[in-house]
Amino acid sequence: MDKKKVILVTDGDKVAQKAVETAAANIGGRCISASAGNPTILSGEEIVELVTKAQHDPVVVMVDDRGKKGMGKGEQVMMKMLEDKTIDIIGIVAVSSNGKDCNGLDVTCSITKDGQVIENAVDKYGNNTGEDTICGDTLSILKNKKDLVIVGIGDPGKMDYKDEVTKGAPITTKALREVMERSGAKPH
Predict the structure, then answer these.
(1) Strand-pair partners of 88
(2) What is the pLDDT of residue 100?
(3) 3-state SS track over the chain
(4) Which region, left, alpha or beta, applies to residue 79 given φ > 0 means left and ψ of -120 to 50 means alpha?
(5) What pLDDT score does 143 carry?
(6) pLDDT tens digits, residue range 122-141?
């Protein structure tokens, strides 16, 4: 049996949830809406179980720390999912938070609020920072995951209304497509 392909999105508030649900539908994927929350409510095991029951993939899962320093709930869930051998995490949509205590995470690429694919990171508002690293509260555990595709985006609710659900969440959609393309994943 093929492992379900999973894309993690490092945000789970109400605005992000609507954008992620819309974007997942746009790419023909499945969003685990129950993974939303600020912070993430479900455990890693509970989310993996929901992923394995999904009708098709890619399956999009939201993880959120609610700005907590250190190992927050979102990172605990992400760690559990990264360690799970029954699913295949093909990439991360890393939502920038403009954190002050940012160690930074190298991105594969980013999507600006204007929908451009760039090789640099973006800030919370979807602007090119000119840096290679993105700041986000649910990203620090990914430092050693060099094999993952990491696509940076601004906060879905803070990009000058450019990622609105009424517009089809184009920035989040493009980020999910970029993860699929760069990972070589094909939906089932």
Answers:
(1) 5
(2) 57
(3) CCCEEEEEECCCCHHHHHHHHHHHHHCCCEECHHHCCCCCCCCHHHHHHHHHHCCCCCEEEECCCCCCCCCCHHHHHHHHHHHCCCEEEEEEEEECCCCCCCCCEECCEEECCCCCEECCCECCCCCECCCCEECCCCCHHHCCCCCCEEEEECCCCCCCCCCCHHHCCHHHHHHHHHHHHHHCCCCC
(4) alpha
(5) 78
(6) 999 999 999 989 988 678 78
- The model's pTM: 0.94
Average pLDDT over residues 54-75: 85
Ordered by where they begin, the domains of the chain are: 4-183 (3.40.50.11230)
Tokens representing 186 are: 């094909």
pLDDT attached to residue 98: 73
Place of tokens 């000119």: 130
